[in-house]
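Troubleshooting log. The previous structure file for this entry was overwritten by mistake, so regenerating from the original sequence record. Sequence copied from the archived sheet and checked twice against the printout by T.R.
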Amino acid sequence: MPDRPSARSLVSHCLLLALAWTLPGHAQTPAQAQPAVYAAAQAEQTPMLATLKNLVHIESGSRDYGGVSYIAQVAAERLKALGGEVQIIPATDVVRLEDTPEQVGPMVQAVFKGRGQSRIMMIAHMDTVYQRGDVDKQPFRIEGDRVYGLGVEDEKQGVALVLHSIAMLQKLGYDSFGEITVLFNSDEEISSPGSRRLISALARDQDAIFSFESGGLQGTLHLATSGIGAMFLDVQGKSSHAGAKPEAGVNALYELSHQLLQMRDLSQPENGLKLNWTIAQAGTTRNVIPPHAQAQADARALRAQDFQALQDAVQEKIKNRLLEGSKVTARFELRRPPMQASDAARRITAQAQTIYRDELGIPLHVNDVALGGGTDAAFAALNTRGGVVEGMGVCGYGAHDMYGEYILLDCIAPRLYLVARMVMALSEPATAR
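Regenerated output below.
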């Protein structure tokens, strides 16, 4: 869910990044940065790029069961090599949605135990929206300050960033955290039908949950996301000959049109509630009165109760039918719940802003108003006592764009630094700056 910065703010941000971070081994440590962590972040950038290249070239579309199973195995092996207690978890507890495939890809869970008390969770997804063979159209490559590749921003950078943040902490000999739980899923792009319940369960007792979607070109952290739903409208009519006896039929297309028009005003943009009809089908043959029609709508809300109110409004609307003899039914499907900003999340991002500003000299933007997008962070936020922060990934742009998806090279080392320092800040709140 990338943010859209103004040209002026983007130029300023990139100049700050360029001033603060140059090529590994050639940057001067900012005066307030922790030198060992800063050096470790610089040193980890090149290995992370190698990991990212490998991940991008593993095709892992959400419906490609072989592809997502393979990338899960690769990720599990890397986590085991880092010393985690690792398991590959098949998707057996699946919430069946309209478009859920027969086989949903597995999850990878790893637990790293330290000697402290903090409990931190890191989530990222391994799947992409692309099809097998698409990688040839945009292979991994670096052009100037941009790193291109299918799925590089959404969200293989997140998987790589988690792996190398853990590696950084190990190389620094840092183990003052209590427990770090890593969860990679492979069904995020299809609304996480097989992983949503596990995400919620694991997040429940965490102090902080970091989700590694990209924060857009400015690297914005997000504390709120929109709920996403789908509304399905089904109309049953009666077929007849369109030329010889149209009056003997019940035109499902007419009824569907009537229903869609009378529901065009259910959105409340001022409250973040949106209902937009986006797909419709009716009829099969030109000279036959269509006996069946259906439509789908995209729904967005900032509060769970708004979805219920929307469902109630739709059910009331469909009672008003255009044609006698037509049958109209509606059903709602929750794709993702909304996530609202919590006080715990605000405290965590305040620490993150202090680290970026005081230690690196880089501003860090935080957004606590949902912009319309939804992510797995919302599942983590359902029942947790901790703060949930989205957008911890590397700055980037062009998610789902076959030819324009990229991350910013100069953002990698600062993000590695931030993740490591946030683990420290949460694990040693009395001493961390």
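The chain is about 35% helix and 20% strand. Archived copy saved in two places this time.
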